[in-house]
């Protein structure tokens, strides 16, 4: 059986889903909940423009700025492990959450907090169009 996700907004869609469920071989799993809209491509593009701009000021790469912003906003844990190349024991901060798994609302809050941090700390702001 192939996993499928249905967004039900009308009665005819609800009827279709009921028929679909009735045709599934047992056992199967069903999860029903509110519609969660993932972050948009435009939101993600704006975030990476912001990381790029902040990186030019700080000397960090956009990826490094992203990791720092995730740690600042969502918290982090410190992980100690040997370096893959040198074997030297290193400690690294690992964010507790990733931005890719956030819905639009959570992503917007992360983006706003990151913009405020970059603006107040590094003088980096994006305009309305950026």
Task: Explain how this protein is built.
The chain is mostly helical and 130 residues long. The chain has a domain at 41-122. 48% of the residues lie in helices and 11% in strands. The protein contains four helices and two strands, in the order αααββα. The protein has helices spanning 11-22, 41-58, 62-74, 104-122, and strands spanning 76-82, 89-95. The protein has a two-stranded antiparallel sheet. It is flat and about 55 Å long. The model has no long low-confidence stretch (mean pLDDT 92).
Produce the secondary structure layout.
Blueprint: H1 11-22, H2 41-58, H3 62-74, E1 76-82, E2 89-95, H4 104-122
Antiparallel strand pairs: 1-2
Helix pairs in contact: 2-3, 2-4
In total, how many beta strands?
2
User: Shape from CA axes?
Assistant: flat
Biggest sheet strand order reads 1-2
Order of helices and strands: HHHEEH
Which structural class should the secondary elements be placed in? Answer: mainly alpha
Average pLDDT over all residues: 92
Query: Taking Cα atoms only, what radius of gyration do you get, to the nearest Å?
Result: 21 Å
Oligomer: single chain
Tell me what portion of residues adopts beta-strand conformation: 5-15%
Low-confidence stretches: none
Helicity level, as a percent range? 40-55%
Q: Helical element count?
A: 4
* Major beta-sheet overview: 2 strands, antiparallel
How far do the termini sit from each other? 43 Å
């Amino acid at each position: 059986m192939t996993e499928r996700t249905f967004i039900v907004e009308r009665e005819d869609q609800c009827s279709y889903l009921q028929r679909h469920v009735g045709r599934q071989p047992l056992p199967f799993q069903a999860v029903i909940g509110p519609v969660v809209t993932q972050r948009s491509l435009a939101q993600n593009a704006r975030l990476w423009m912001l990381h790029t701009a902040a990186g030019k000021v700080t000397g960090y790469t956009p990826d490094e700025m992203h990791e720092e912003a995730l740690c600042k906003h969502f918290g982090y844990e410190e992980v100690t492990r040997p370096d893959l190349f040198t074997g030297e024991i290193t400690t690294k901060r690992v964010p507790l959450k990733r931005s890719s798994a956030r819905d639009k609302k959570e992503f917007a809050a992360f983006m706003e907090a990151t913009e405020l941090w970059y603006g107040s700390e590094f003088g980096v702001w994006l305009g309305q169009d950026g």
